[in-house]
Amino acid sequence: MNKQPLRIAIFTALYAPFMSGVSMGVHQRVRWLLQQGHEVFLIHPGVNYLYPKEVRDRPMLRLEEVQSFSNFYSYAYPSKPMIFYNSLPEPLHYRYWSDTKLLLNFQPDIVVVEEAPGMIGYYSLFLQGYGRLIGIEYTKRTGTPIISIFHTDIVAYIRYYIGEWAFRFIRPIIPILIKQLSEAYDVNYFSSQEQLTKYKLLAAKRLEYLPYQGIDCEKFHPRNICYDPIPDDQRPTLLFVGRISAEKNVKQLLDAFVLIAAKIPDVHLVIVGSGPQDKEIRRRAKKFESGITVWGESHGTELLGWFARADVFVNASVTENFCTTTNEALASGTPVVAVLAPSTSEQISSGRNGFLVEPNNPKDFAMKVIAILENPALKEEMSRQARLYIQKFDWSACMEKFEEKLYQHVGASKKLEVKGAAQVVNR
């Protein structure tokens, strides 16, 4: 017998046109759930004139792709740019809009909160944000199950956003905040075992591993070489795709590039993305003339082409939590060199589909990249293994597991309702 479709309310801290792995993951998740026949109410940040024009005009997959579904509903909550990063949003305070009213109108079977720390105001140290835990008032009142999905390493992000000095000042209260946040939800899902272990040590509660962050292995594929953005350029190409920001450690890619170019003079580093360090990285890249290309943002088939075109995908970030772009590179058959960070050892089997390197060690990073570029047989085998390894995280397989968890939570809630009603009758 087929399962009854669910009514699912999803709050998210990020959605198009705000660019991140969270945005893309939420969009894919919503679309898949709609295709299965579930009713989905997406509550996402609204965009307005306060954000940079390049954000407002960004050609990402948006609501238009899912609005054709009759079982889709949405609400754009009022937001404003984050004080530490004006290309990303934080919600306006609950005095300006009500999560409880939205849920009372929709009456969901379950509530999903994606990136709860970003909505409550952790990233701005509570100078912005909603000011209270999302969805909790409604779910306590109605007994509706509510789950939280952790996407990013919030502790590491806060450290980068506010600086080392300020972070040392607030560090003692971080376990208190994380414990309070995690205890509010029925369960907090992590896509990375390593990240989950880290947050257990930070006093987080009700944690569970769930590989919810999949990759579309048909969309990201080696055959996308047909979309090669630089078909006449035969140089060995290193690729980075992501935000050009402090937490992504892009500066260290430039430090490593100096060492790589000394050994392989015609190597070409392509940086795809944008962010607060864009101008600084462009300024430093000019010293290398044509050796480094800061491409800017890329979308659609062009981006697919970049992943398939690259000889090595490089990522120096120490804050990743099952990095989306790493998965996209692997699915495209591209070996990855990345620093050892939460989750990277779950994506990269060092020596098989890429290499893991010591954090903040440009020399080690350069040596691993050179080892791949100088050994065609190794590169070919790593490319084959990259594609084989990532297929176990194919989007449909991950979403089936996610869907099953939703049914389990709703089923447990219904049993409690029946038990409670029976106790009342017996009295």
SSE inventory with pairings:
Blueprint: E1 7-12, H1 21-35, E2 39-45, H2 53-56, E3 72-77, E4 79-82, E5 85-91, H3 99-106, E6 110-114, H4 116-120, H5 136-142, E7 146-150, H6 154-162, H7 164-170, H8 174-183, E8 187-190, H9 193-201, E9 207-209, E10 237-241, H10 250-263, E11 268-272, H11 278-285, E12 292-296, H12 300-309, E13 312-315, H13 324-331, E14 336-339, H14 344-347, E15 354-357, H15 362-373, H16 376-390, H17 395-426
Parallel strand pairs: 1-2, 1-6, 2-3, 6-7, 7-8, 8-9, 10-11, 10-13, 11-12, 13-14, 14-15
Antiparallel strand pairs: 4-5
Helix pairs in contact: 1-17, 6-7, 10-15, 13-16
Can I get a quick summary?
The chain is 41% helix and 17% strand. It is α/β, with parallel strands linked by helices. Helix 1 packs across helix 17, helix 6 packs across helix 7 and helix 13 packs across helix 16 (376-390).
How would you characterize the largest beta sheet?
Answer: 7 strands, parallel
User: What is the count of β-strands?
Assistant: 15
Q: Rg from C-alpha positions?
A: 22 Å
Strand content is: 15-25%
Helix content: 40-55%
Question: What is the residue-mean pLDDT, rounded to a whole number?
Answer: 92
Number of helical regions = 17
